[in-house]
Amino acid sequence: MIFENEDIANICEGYTLIQKKEGFRFGTDAVLLANFFNGKKNSKILEIGTGNGIIPILLCAKDKISKIKAVEIQKEIADLAIRNVKRNGLEDRIEVVNMDIKNIQEGNTYDYIISNPPYMVLDGKEINDKDIKSIARHEIKLNLKEFIANAKRLLKPRGELFMVHKSYRFLEISEELIKNGFSVKRVKFVHYSKDKDSSIVLIEASKGRKNILKIETPIFLNDN
């Protein structure tokens, strides 16, 4: 069932996504993160902030995972994710849960966490903290420190975190990861074109394991 304020996007062959015409819609970041993920298929995986369910659906479509638990704090969006999971026949592989990750009690449980967390810092500007899009984009319900601390709490020892964020916050992210016992393993910078600075960064980090950092070949979106 599709409501008047919704439309349908084809996300890859055989898979579609219901989205709101106005408000939260998936972007390039989600597709990039799904492509960047390289965890082992039969593992225990958690997504923090699933939104409309785009990332777990893409991971299933690419056959990168067997099962995943996808958490979303906003009920309206979690309900939309559940509808998208059902629409694509993935109920046996994707479990969508409407809750705050701070309330998840399963410490040291997951092999992998994947997330496209809120990017934008609350800088004193007046923001509608009830607006769906504002909550998805701004650190209203979850800031960077809370996100990384909870990822540490929920991951198994030597578990791995996959995330996408804004490039200008890369140093801050790296420092926070190290502070929480992570080691950055892979980094891939994304540019809109070769003459533009990087706007997005993809990061893989390991909990409690030392890595040799690999900075991968950048992506230039206009060339792909």
TrEMBL record:
Q: Which species is listed as the source?
A: Cetobacterium somerae ATCC BAA-474
Q: Which CDD domains match?
A: AdoMet_MTases
One Pfam family from the record:
MTS
Q: Which residues form a coiled coil?
A: none
Q: This protein is called what?
A: Methyltransferase small domain-containing protein
Q: Which residues form the Methyltransferase small domain?
A: 31-174
Q: Which GO terms describe its molecular function?
A: N-methyltransferase activity; nucleic acid binding; S-adenosylmethionine-dependent methyltransferase activity
Q: Which PROSITE patterns match?
A: N6_MTASE
Q: Which domain of life is it from?
A: Bacteria
Q: Which terms does the UniProt entry file under GO BP? A: methylation
